[in-house]
Design goal:
GcvR, ACT-like_dom_sf, ACT_dom, Alpha-Beta Plaits, four-stranded antiparallel beta sheet, ACT domain-containing protein
Length: about 170
């Protein structure tokens, strides 16, 4: 089987997931994993599909037929899994919203060779204090060679600098 990664985006409306699923099914594909969401009136997502190698081009062409309904980009997946010895950490962030939080946190993780597996972010009104709150949860792969205490120290320093709470589990 060949793994394809689809990125999809378009104006949100009913039936978008069904349209993609119908095309995948009609061309012998299997919907493996996905992360789909509506953001500011736009439907967007990433979908992992497996398909027989001799049907890849046919499926790609059929997905192109969704243009106008959804923009679909197709990438061939590597099929790689985390390296032996890797572990996982979860990072939770909460604080007053400001520009650059994601940049600063991802820079620290990159410096310590962590690879982000998943990340969710949200801003919302701070009910009691006014203003906006930023909240994020990050799951990252940690190579065996990573010094977790140095990572923790760098995250604590960053939390102080940008005035957010960062919890590393």
């Amino acid at each position: 089987m060949t793994t394809l990664i689809l990125t999809v985006a378009g104006a949100d409306r009913p039936g978008l997931v069904a349209a993609v699923a119908d095309v995948v099914d009609a061309h012998g594909g299997n919907w493996e994993n996905s992360q789909l969401s509506e953001l500011a009136g736009t439907f967007a997502g990433v979908i992992e599909v497996s398909v027989l190698p001799d049907r890849v081009e046919e499926l790609q062409a059929a997905l192109g037929g969704l243009d106008g309904l959804l923009t679909v980009a197709v990438y061939t997946g590597t099929g790689e899994t985390p390296a032996t010895g890797e572990s996982w950490v979860t990072l939770s962030v909460l604080g007053n919203d400001r520009a650059g939080i994601v940049r600063d946190i991802s820079r620290v993780l990159s410096t310590h060779a962590l690879s982000i597996e998943s990340m969710s972010t949200e801003t919302r009104d701070a009910a009691m204090a006014g203003g906006r709150l930023f909240e994020s949860t990050v799951t990252a792969a940690v190579p065996a060679s990573t010094d977790l205490e140095a990572l923790r120290a760098d995250l604590e320093l960053l939390a102080t600098e940008i005035q957010v709470d960062i919890t590393l589990d």
